[in-house]
Specification:
The protein has 147 residues and is an alpha+beta fold. Helices cover 46% and strands 15% of the residues. It is built from 7 helices and 3 strands. It has a 3-stranded mixed beta sheet. The relative contact order is 0.22.
Length: 147
């Protein structure tokens, strides 16, 4: 598979509600997301667009250990964030916009978009066969002393 600057990220269904806003106090979430915006100097870390930013949690997955691990929180523009969460974006009726943004940022074709999406869907289906996911948010303690 080709390597792209902007990619899709599909969270295993068992981990859908394991996000930082559900476990952090609002004040702690504000610290984390505002730091992501500051580190990005007010620009989307993927496409470079300035303006309103959204905080995106970057997770890694160890299928062997059923471990979902927080790796970072980054600043994205709405369009890049919608590509990251393509399934939700499609459900919201913005799938065509997301496809166009993916192709523009990655300078690729519609066929490339569909190939990348198919590969991500295959990984997602495989990951959903894993049961008993554990979430590791030690990154928060390491970077912000948040437990």
């Amino acid at each position: 598979m080709k390597s792209y600057k902007l990619t899709f990220e599909m969270v295993p269904e068992e981990c859908w509600y394991s996000n930082l806003r559900s476990v952090l106090k609002p004040a702690d979430w504000d610290i984390v997301r505002k730091d992501a915006y500051a580190r990005a100097k007010g620009r989307c870390v993927i496409c470079g667009r300035s303006g309103r930013l959204e905080a995106h949690e970057k997770w890694s997955y160890d299928d062997e250990r059923a471990l979902q691990k927080l790796e970072d929180v980054i600043a994205l523009c709405r369009e890049c964030h919608e590509v990251k969460h393509i399934s939700r974006t499609q459900l919201m009726g913005r799938g065509m916009d997301a496809m166009e943004h993916f192709m523009r940022v990655n300078q690729c074709s519609q066929m490339d978009f569909h190939d990348a999406l198919q590969q991500t869907n295959e990984e997602y289906l495989q990951r959903n066969r894993v049961e008993g996911w554990v979430t590791d948010i030690s990154w928060l303690k390491d970077n912000y002393n948040i437990k």
